[in-house]
Design goal:
By secondary structure, this protein is mainly beta. It contains three helices and six strands; from the N terminus they run αββαβββαβ. The protein has a six-stranded mixed barrel with strand order 1-5-2-4-3-6. The radius of gyration is 17 Å and the shape is globular. The protein starts with 9 loop residues before the first helix and ends in a 50-residue tail after the last strand.
Length: about 230
């Protein structure tokens, strides 16, 4: 599956992108990142059947999906080059806990990127090419969770020690993988983009794996992504 930009609306897209840049303290380059490394991971609620920024089919929400932090996602609005990419994410530690929490089992999940986690002045999706987020990550994966496809026990804890079960943010390792490893890959209704959204969308079934160092470029689109 390939995706093309509607050239007839290029001027409005350029204007939209320039407006976005005006909100940044300085013009930032999109983040370049290797196919494997370390990142932070948070989670957010994504309603079943919701059409997120990439325009992926509603049935994709029945399988593990995530939003990617904006400057790695590669667009300020609507779809970016990260759309449709699949990553294996493995929990490492809950670094904000005191003492730091290390799980005694290995928990991993393969996610498909279907959404954008907007850039902000604070929070975990605020990394730019000039500096990481508060956890030292240049990427943040915002996992759609709770999810029918991910066990409620996916995030381990020690409620007796900490008094709660949700740390909110984790250090993770990530690895770019073929989307054939994604749970939803064998369900054709979970693949592809929604047609006639009124804006350009792109959700490849199984994008080419990332190069050793990926450079993402801005998509000059003008559809605001809902969160």
């Amino acid at each position: 599956m390939s995706c093309a930009i509607d050239l007839s609306s290029i001027y409005s897209r350029i204007l939209s992108f320039l407006v976005f840049l005006s909100f940044l303290p300085t013009t930032q380059a999109w983040i370049q990142y290797p196919p494997s490394g370390h990142a932070t991971m948070t989670h957010y609620s994504l309603p079943t059947g919701f059409i997120a920024a990439c325009g992926c089919t509603p049935n994709s929400t029945y399988y593990p999906t995530a939003a990617l932090s904006q400057m790695a996602y590669g667009s300020s609005t609507s779809y970016g080059p990260a759309c449709g990419q699949c990553f294996e994410l493995t929990l490492l530690d809950a670094f904000t806990a005191n003492p730091r929490f290390y799980p005694n089992t290995t928990q991993s999940v393969v996610v498909k990127i279907t959404d954008l986690c907007p850039l902000s002045k604070s929070g975990w999706c605020n990394a730019t090419s000039s500096g990481p987020n508060a956890g030292g990550g240049y990427l943040n994966f915002d996992l759609a969770w709770p999810s029918t496809s991910i066990p409620n026990s996916f995030f381990p804890s020690d409620a007796t020690l900490y008094g709660f079960t949700d740390f909110g943010v984790w250090n993770v390792s990530y690895q770019s993988v073929s989307c054939q490893e994604w749970q939803g890959y064998t369900n054709q209704t979970a693949l592809g983009s929604v047609a006639d959204l009124g804006y350009t969308s792109c959700c490849p079934n199984n994008p080419v794996l990332l190069n050793p160092l990926r450079t993402v470029h801005p998509n000059l689109t003008n559809h605001a992504a809902g969160r």
